[in-house]
UniProtKB/TrEMBL annotation:
Range of residues in the leader sequence: 1-27
InterPro entries listed in its UniProt record: AB_hydrolase_fold, Peptidase_S10
Protein name stated in the entry: Peptidase S10
Any Gene Ontology biological process: proteolysis
Chain positions covered by the region annotation Disordered: 331-350
GO molecular function annotation: serine-type carboxypeptidase activity
Pfam annotation, one family: Peptidase_S10
TM region(s), chain numbering: none
Taxonomic lineage of the native organism: Bacteria, Pseudomonadati, Pseudomonadota, Alphaproteobacteria, Hyphomicrobiales
Keywords, alphabetical: Signal
Length: 486
């Protein structure tokens, strides 16, 4: 779940190469027994009873050997009628589990996404759970959650922790789960967050090609759709331009004056005048002066900071400088969250993000409690995020940086019933909402089957009660639309 990517000759997208996989190559013959219990939550206006099913799905390599396992935690409504929709959920990273979406947004329980890492955060019944209208299956790849890498040799790591290998393994896990549980005929959706934006459309493509399984809907939460838009910042204005509306949202939030319509003028400027004056370069001193003056007004940063950066403000510089005069560091995941600055003299400190760092310990404890309470014999630790996965991730290819726009375009053209919902937080600096807006504007209309919804908040916009509720309403309407057209 990070905007960070090391740029170099080795960080390129792996060529999509899907081989058709026979069913018996997906570890059905070595299926391990699932642990299952029943549970219920009492909500203000209703009670939900459901099954909790936890399992680890063995995943085979091309030699037929099981070298990894995906961790799966499913919440399945009891007596809810048929055919009941089912939504698969994956996290980002790479190296991040599905715990953020589970306990932050859509699962039957949640925790408060505020406070310090050591603050006790009990599991709460989640009034905004999606269990009312879809079953939920959270899938964690090897090395995250309860997913395991069984062989740690270089060959296995390069396969499992790679752009294409990850897509193939996750599509295999989804196909295996559907077959094992007899749910192939159900309406099927896939929800991915952050790097899940790269994964989700490509998993849909892999499921179609490798397994003959068609998804009905894709939900992309705070997605990174095309890394090429953001990591050519030395010469391209795109990454700076797409951040400007989110900087404006952060400033307006800090002033207590946020209204979505106030961002329209910033969006217009970012996609037109800013790019024109950026490309004129330093030799056009008048254009450079106009650019820095306007960017200063948009961001609320000190004029000296903006001038020194020539108006080229990235999320790291903004996070460093936005509240620096008050002795604070600002989160790039949610700029409304700040922390004390441990070293005010450092120009660009490499410290943990105030919002993200405060969540890891509470999420780890909460997921451990959830599993211990609801999964018989639960003993393994739950890994919320694993830096080793990110550090060893194989980005190498001769075909550019990771992106899913190509797969998204192809899948929407192939299936006239497929629908896509893209959701963002206005003030998210990791995956700016305006970046997705501009990327999606390059696609055909596809009969209005792509929708984007933006909410107040940052990367985990669902940390805000009103945004979490709005997300649920939009998701329920999205699922209802899919059910009606079947």
């Amino acid at each position: 779940m990070t905007r960070r990517l090391m740029i170099g000759s080795g960080i390129l997208l792996l060529l999509t190469c899907f081989a058709v996989v026979p069913h018996d190559a997906i570890a059905q013959t070595s299926r391990k027994p699932a642990a299952e219990t029943t549970a219920s939550v009492a909500l203000p206006d209703r009670a939900l009873a459901f099954r909790v099913v936890a399992e680890r799905l063995p995943l085979k390599n091309d030699r037929g050997q099981v070298d990894a396992e995906a961790g799966v935690l499913a919440f399945l409504r009891k007596d809810a009628g048929s055919p009941r929709p089912i939504t698969f959920i994956i996290g980002g990273g790479p190296g991040t589990s599905s715990a953020y979406l589970n306990l932050g947004a859509i699962g039957p329980w949640r925790i408060a996404f505020d406070g310090s890492p050591s603050k006790a955060r009990p599991l709460l019944a989640n009034a905004e759970t999606w269990l009312d209208f879809t079953d939920l299956v959270f899938i964690d790849p090897p090395g995250t959650g309860q997913g395991l890498l069984l062989q740690r040799d270089a060959r296995t790591k390069e396969r499992v922790w790679s752009v294409d290998g990850d897509i193939n393994l996750l599509s295999d896990a989804i196909a295996t789960w559907l077959r094992n549980h007899g749910r192939l005929a159900a309406p099927k959706l896939l929800l991915g967050q952050s790097y899940g934006g790269v994964r989700t459309p490509r998993i849909a493509e892999a499921l179609q090609i490798r397994h003959g399984i068609a998804l009905n809907g894709l939900i992309l939460a705070s997605p990174a759709l095309d890394y090429g838009w953001r990591y050519h910042a030395r010469t391209s204005p795109l990454s700076f331009a797409t951040l400007l509306p989110s900087f404006a949202a952060a400033r307006l939030e800090s002033e207590g004056t946020f209204e979505a319509h106030k961002l329209i003028a910033v969006e217009d400027y970012a996609s037109s005048v800013f790019i024109d004056e950026y490309l004129r370069g330093l030799r056009d001193k008048e254009a450079a002066s106009r650019l820095t003056e306007r960017v200063t007004a948009i961001t609320g940063l000190p004029a000296a900071v903006v001038s020194a950066a020539r108006g080229h403000i990235d999320e790291k510089l903004f996070s460093r400088e936005f509240a620096r005069m008050n002795g604070k560091l600002t989160s790039s995941y949610d700029p409304s969250v700040t922390s004390e600055d441990p070293d005010p003299a450092t120009p660009r400190p490499d410290y943990a993000d105030p919002f993200l760092a405060a969540l890891k310990a509470p999420l780890t404890i909460a997921m451990s409690d959830l599993l211990k309470t609801n999964v018989p014999g639960q003993q393994r630790a739950y890994i919320v995020s694993n830096e080793a996965v990110f550090d060893e991730w194989q980005w190498n290819s001769d075909h550019g940086l990771p992106e899913s726009v190509t797969a998204l375009r192809k899948m929407l053209a192939l299936d006239p019933a497929l629908r896509v919902l893209v959701v963002h937080g206005y003030s998210d600096l990791q995956t700016p909402y305006f970046e997705s807006t501009l990327i999606l504007n390059q696609l055909p209309d596809f009969g209005g089957r792509i929708a984007q919804r933006n909410y107040r908040g940052g990367h985990m916009f669902y940390s805000r009660d009103e945004s979490r509720a709005a997300f649920r309403r939009d998701a329920e309407a999205f699922v209802s639309m899919i059910r009606q057209q079947r």
